[in-house]
Amino acid sequence: MPQDILLTGASGVIGSAIARHLANAGFRLHLTSRDPARLKPLVSEISKKSGNVRTYALDLSNLQQDRQVVEMFFQQASHPFGLICNAGDLGLLGPFLGEPFEDWVKSIQQNFLGHTAMMHAFGRGFQATKRKGGAIVILSGAGLGSAISHANLSSYGTAKAALTYLAEALSLELRDLEITINAIAPGQVKSGITDQALRAGAERLGAYAESARKCMETGGVSPDLTAKLVTFLMSPSARGISGRLLSARFDQKRLREEPDNVAQDRNLYRLRRIDEELFRPAPEGKTA
Q: Which domains does the chain have, with CATH numbers?
């Protein structure tokens, strides 16, 4: 029986790539978007491979709606298995002290609390149905995985760092339900977030806007790398890997070749990741 997966932000560049890879792997998909009409071309494409595809309207800033979507997923899914927390945007752009604190909190609610509410409902769904065996994947985004910190992005970076730590903490709490939970740093993908940074401009975002411009010119990191890693984390080979921050660009070879060794190493690929191999200290004068 196909396993059901709920994917947020499916109409975006990374989300649609994830959906295609999961459909090819035989999963049954439940897709969300702020505007479900944007999902029609994708649904038409992947329904030929994965059968019936369900769609849901989802605004992450609406915590009640976040939980309701997960509850509908459990009602409609034959074999609930996965939750992929992919949706989000850069949120409030500007200096922390120069913007109303209430706006900063709203941005945190969208990028952190929205998916947190969904994860809570997802775990409760397993408890209520007495199910065991599932997987949660969080996209850590540009908030993590870079050696250089960026000014005027504090709400986005804070939300992504918080989600990643939550994955590490919940990996212990979700063991009894046999649910794995991991975060992925996708690298800088040419996406809606990249376009958002470009439109904000260097005056507001400095080096981050410049890196977004280069990403648009070069094409950036392929979203298929993230999609392949997500699909791997949904597979039986990854059942021992949980509570990790994984790079879509750098970690896949080792994960596929040594999944048991990775699972047994308690220190590998954690949030407090200073290994001098993949994430080196930023060059002198480029720490902000």
A: 4-264 (3.40.50.720)
